[in-house]
């Protein structure tokens, strides 16, 4: 079949949906392209692009742009992210880092007031937390280097959803209510997402003409429409003079037109580790996600988790995570500013040494950072661990997975940082500005202190695993620092415990991030699993909360693919697979 004929055939494909393999978990299997996102409209946008002959990159941007409409508190063009791409023809994995950067006005003391850390919540809901958004530049790089379609083509489905509107879901209404206080500080945000001071009721059709206009301008003029000209000026203005409601005062920020015009995405090599026969590709710095997941997997490799009682195996998983977090918190930051000991942290020899610090019987105390320097390629790198501190971390974000018929894969996590980001909708353009700068450590010395042009350390961890040189699965999740534990736990559930991916995603999540308590989800406390772990010394965080919202695709041995989304977290996700026309 010629390429053109194949495209035509693809355009006529039938979407095969096999939902609810397990109660509530969207699962779809077939032999064509696949998509898993947390939004039905976003998955449909990706499918529409795949059906028109677009590849996984084209479809991923289409889905992401739609998520910016339907899940605007989690993501959008006012933020940034990390896209991992498996290029089937070249059999290689690359990543597009489009993390927000600190404006040129930033200094290490930008979040210090009177010798103390600025108030976290007040900083978050302000112009001061806004970094230079990277998403549009990231989409541009991904499309122009690895895609086949134009902005105009891939933004069309999202423009449709933004103009025609979408029905407010229960999850959306709840998000509005939970973030009402922050969003209503700003008139532009109140006007878009609230009516008479209240969250829009369930079923209301929410249109976003401002965002449709922003997307149309990008579709017509490319990324410049975002980084130069009126849209850029509107962002600069919103940061300098946030559109606050009467009587409200928030901190202003200093974002310049030059900061926007000079923004660049980075094409970076992934980090890689091996785990029980899989090659696991992770996102490199400035995200700590790939390194922390990789180090924890290296630690876990020393145990036969399958043979252990479930509580003991989960204990080992949590201790591996604890140690990986101690190292992450001490060493990792933007690689263009800090010489982090990545090779040492990911070396198998370092893992063997570090494993000796794991207590196989009992929950450990807070761990100190290890010393990866003897395991570095260049052991002379003169940096020692800094005191590890857990910054306040206040999820959310979104993750999506797409694959196409040619075998290309996109694992994409992107964000505006907290729910609703800074809370500031850019007047006239319908998108929320990020608060990504609160991902810096507010005070040092620490590798992750704020600096002009620097990218704050992230936890985002889109992951692609190969086996025998062929794609095996891809997974990722939102959830701030819990992203790392969700990805790690899902891999352990799938690879070690042999759970099918839907079960691996559905399982209750445990997130140990080198703290005295471990985060769990509602309903976990009091379960047999919880009681068994309590006997090993575990204590649970006081307020159980939903952890993450994973999406995954499994590449089955028979050549078919299985897309999996969430059945209950963050509403309900959507998994679709094309049925290929032969
Ligand atoms: N800002 C977070 C990070 O980059 C992601 C946002 C979240 O999920 O909280 O790690």
TrEMBL record:
InterPro entries associated with the record: GGT_bact (IPR051792), GGT_lsub (IPR043138), GGT_peptidase (IPR000101), GGT_ssub_C (IPR043137), Ntn_hydrolases_N (IPR029055)
MF terms in GO: glutathione hydrolase activity; leukotriene C4 gamma-glutamyl transferase activity
Ranges annotated as spanning the membrane: none
Protein family: Belongs to the gamma-glutamyltransferase family.
Record's keyword annotation contains Lipid biosynthesis: no
The organism of origin for this protein: Massilia atriviolacea
Keyword Acyltransferase: yes
Substrates-to-products reaction catalysed: glutathione + H2O = L-cysteinylglycine + L-glutamate; an N-terminal (5-L-glutamyl)-[peptide] + an alpha-amino acid = 5-L-glutamyl amino acid + an N-terminal L-alpha-aminoacyl-[peptide]; an S-substituted glutathione + H2O = an S-substituted L-cysteinylglycine + L-glutamate
Keywords: Acyltransferase, Glutathione biosynthesis, Hydrolase, Signal, Transferase, Zymogen
Protein name: Glutathione hydrolase proenzyme
Active site (UniProt): 397 (nucleophile)
